[in-house]
Amino acid sequence: MSEKKKQPPAAAALHAARQRLSTGWPMPLFLQGAFEFLQAALFSAFLVVIPWFAVWFSGGFAERSIESVLKMGGQVWLLIHAVPLRLLQVGTGADPSAGTGVLNVIPLGLTLIPFFLCWRAGRRIARASYTDQLWQGILGALGVYLLCGLFTGFLVGNEEVSVSLLAATLIPAIPAGAGVVIGARREAGSWGRLIGFDAAAWISKASQHSRWAGSYVWAVLCGGTLAYTLVFGLASALLSINLAVHWVDISNVYQQLRPGPVGSSVLTLAQLGIMPNLVLWTLAWITGGGFTLGVGSTLSTLQTTVGPLPAVPVFAALPSGELAYAWAFMALPVLAGFLAGWYFLRVGENHLDDWVSKRVTTRWLSLGLSTVALGVFVGIVAGALSLIGSWLSGGSLGIGRFTEMGPEVLMTALLLAAEVAVGTAIGYLVSPLLEHDPVLDR
Fold it and tell me: Is the pLDDT of residue 337 over 80?
C-alpha cells in the first residue's frame, strides 16, 4: 500500500484557514466579558435615559437642550451606581462654596438594574470558561465598566453638577463586580468550581475541634442573616400595609402636583426606585433607632418630629399624630430573633453548649451561659448587617435641610442587635416545646 501523499505546507495552511473560516474563531474570554458588560452598561443607560427623554418630549424640560437632558441621564446613571454628585449653585458673598452640596442618596431599587444585568453577564461568562480561565472574562468585563464610568463622568459635568472622575471610574465597578461574581457563582454551583479551591477537602484536613468550631460559627452567621432577612421582610410587609392604608392621601398629592401622564409615570418609577430605601427606613423605625428626613425631622417608634417635607406622594404615608402604642412594633425584631433561635436548634450545631457543659456541671447554668452567648453572637451578626443596610439607604440630597436623610445608623444597629439577641435566646430555649419527634408521636 502506497503512503498517502503529504500536502505542501502552504496548501495545508490554506486548508486550515478555510476550515477556520467555516467554523468561526472562538471569541477570547476577555473580549466576551468586555462585550457582556458593554451590553449591561448600555442597556442600563438606555433604561435611565428613556424616561428623561419622555419628560423632555412632553414639555417637562422645555428650557433645556437635548444635550442637557442627556447629561442629566448620565448623572442619574452614575447615581444609581452609588457615585456621589456635587451640586453646584451660584454662591453669593465671599464664599462661593456656600451654595454647593453633595447628592449621595442611592436609589437602591434602580441599582438593582445594573446589578442583575451584570449577574446575567457573570453567568454567561462562567458558562463559557473553565475554572482557571474565569478571571480573564471577569477582568475584561470590569475593564470595560471602568472605562464606561470614566467616560460618563467626563461627559456629564456641567455648571450644575460636577463629578469626581476617580469616583466615576471606580465606584460603578463595585455593584457590577458584585453582580458578576454572584452570577458566576450561581452558574458554577459552588465556590470550588468557581475559583478551583475545594473547601470540603481543606476542611477534612482540619481537626475535629476546628470543624466543630467552624460549624458553630457558620450556623451563627446563618442565624444572624436569617434574623436580619426576616426583619427586612416584616418591614416590607409593614410598609406595604401603610401605603395601602394611606393610598387616598398619596393620590391627593398626585392630584395636587398635576404632573401629567408622563410626569406621573416618571415620578412613580422614581418612587419605586427608592422603595428598598424606604423599607430599610421602616426597619430602622420598628427597631426604635428611627430615621431622619432632613435636619430636625426624626421618626421612630419612640419619638416623631416632622418638619416641612417636599411634595413627594409617598411621604404622605408617613406616621403622624399620636402613636401611643408604636413601641409595640419593636417586638417584630424580637420575633425574627425567636425564629433564628428556632432555626439554630434545628440545625443542631450548638457545639459551644457542649463545650460549656463539660466545664460547668450545673446544667441550668451551662445552658444559660451558652444561650446568652448564642443570642449575643446572632445579634452582633444582625447588627453588622444593619450597619451596611442603613449606611447604603441614607445620605444627603445636597439641598437645604435635606443634607441628612436615612436611618440613625449606629442606634438602629445597636437596638436591632439587642432585640434579635433577646429573641434568639428565647427562641432557642422555647423551641424544643414546639418540636415533635414523629417516631415518639406514633
Answer: yes
